[in-house]
Amino acid sequence: MTRLINYLKVSFSTLLTLLFLSSYAQDEGFIYGKVETEDGDVYEGPLRWGKEEVYWTDMFNASKKENKNLDYLSSRELDDLEDRYYDNNDNLISRFVNISWDDDNNGRFVHEFSTEFGNIHSLRMRSSSRVEVKLKNGEYIDVDGSGYNDIGARITVLDKELGNVRLSWSNIERIEFLPTPSRLEEKFGEPLYGTVICDLGEFTGFVQWDHDERVGTDVLDGEEDGDDYEIAFDKIKSIERDGYSSSIVTLKSGRELDLRGTNDVDDDNKGIIVTVKGLGRVDIDWDEFDMVTFKEALNSGPSYNSFPSPEKIYGTLEVDNGDQHTGEIIYDLDEEYTFELLNGENDDVKFIIPFRNIKEISPRGSSASTVTLRDGSKLVLEDSQDVDDKNSGILVKTGSDRVYIPWDRVERIKLD
Q1: Cα 131 from Cα 129, distance rounded (Å)
Q2: 20 to 30 Å CA-CA from 100: which of 85, 93, 238, 281?
Q3: What is the per-residue pLDDT across 210-245, written as a single tens digit (0 to 9) for each?
Q4: pLDDT of residue 88
């Protein structure tokens, strides 16, 4: 009996220790780093991009400067691509998205660069709109920020010595990302986390309201009966869409407000994004949104160290004639890392899925594809060049061999 009591004491003590450590490990999902300015000053602490990005799972967006994968295509294959996407006057067909054009006119089929911050080692500023991105695996990618607000944003650092420091992009020389301490003395707020109900179903995860608000200290604006309200999200229990022009906001106190008059609560809302574990980001249009119920998050999301060093996409491509090609996959002549993203829509709900979460992709005619996730669930996605006939095709690299397969000949892609 004495031995059993001692065992229970040790077990209970261990449980208390684990609970204590767990409570102090909740902040590792916030972006953290060291910012060096052109003046030689250095600031370290949690980082926020403008009033938006604050988590390692948030996206850094820019445009790639070149597409070296075009070098592997023959002149005829390049001509076929030109004919598919450009008219006789050399104008880009409007429906084909995610392509930019560099000033030297050599930028055809250059795509967007999007990645979660957790995949980046550092950013070095080359000009007001050009940035050198260093990935965790040591590789470098030059990107252009023209048209994207992540390059040029004001960066806020909660410096551990000075407190809140707001830095102009033009004065920043370099940003090095670092693992976030398990417990931060200061942070931008507690995570917004909850369950969003829409016409397509329910999604639970970290919530971005109106594409912007992410933490409890962010504010929801609206008015009722001539009175203006600015309500911190950490006071809100739920938000329910009430038609197109207003929302019913229920506070944790139980009070209800029927708010209108701002894009936080009417059909000018840009949408509600939910970051779902094992899936990616689900961007729900206001017309599809029904209700969100907030709840306390167990933590702030994946830590910096939980993002592995970037790896190339590998798999097997099956062609319509039965041939198979196994090797490194360059998807849409662009995405080649597992951290890169596949985009598609289902019923006006946009899905942004890292390739590491995808098991298989099968085209369905010319306008859609079935995407199978690692957990076995399936999505039919459309309205994106990643999943329809505007896809630039697949390049498979095996050793020194290179095989290019146009999208209309792809039967199935199985990813390792």
Answers
A1: 7
A2: 281
A3: 999 999 999 999 999 999 999 999 999 999 999 889
A4: 52
DSSP code at position 21: H
> How do beta strands 155-159 and 140-144 pair?
unpaired
Q: What does the pLDDT average to over 262-269? A: 96
Comparing C-alpha atoms, which of 106, 83, 114 is closest to residue 96? 83
Q: Which distant-in-sequence residues (6+ apart) come within 8 Å of 96 by Cβ?
A: 85, 385, 390
Beta strands in 136-270 (DSSP E): 140-144, 155-159, 163-167, 172-177, 193-198, 201-208, 219-224, 227-232, 236-242, 246-251, 256-260
What kind and span of H or E run contains 298? none
| CB within 8 Å of 2: residues ≥ 6 apart | none
DSSP assignment string, 316-356: EEEETTS-EEEEEEEBTTTB-BTTSEEEEEETTEEEEEEGG
Other beta carbons within 10 Å of 305: 12
pTM of the model: 0.87
DSSP 12: H
Q: How far apart are CA 57 and CA 126, in angstroms?
A: 25
Furthest-apart CA atoms within the chain: distance in Å: 89
Domain residue limits, the chain:
32-65+110-177, 193-294, 305-415
**pLDDT bucket at 73, cuts 50 / 70 / 90:** confident
Determine the Cα–Cα distance for residues 46 and 54; give it in Å rounded to an integer.
8
CB atoms under 10 Å from CB of 76, counted, come to 8
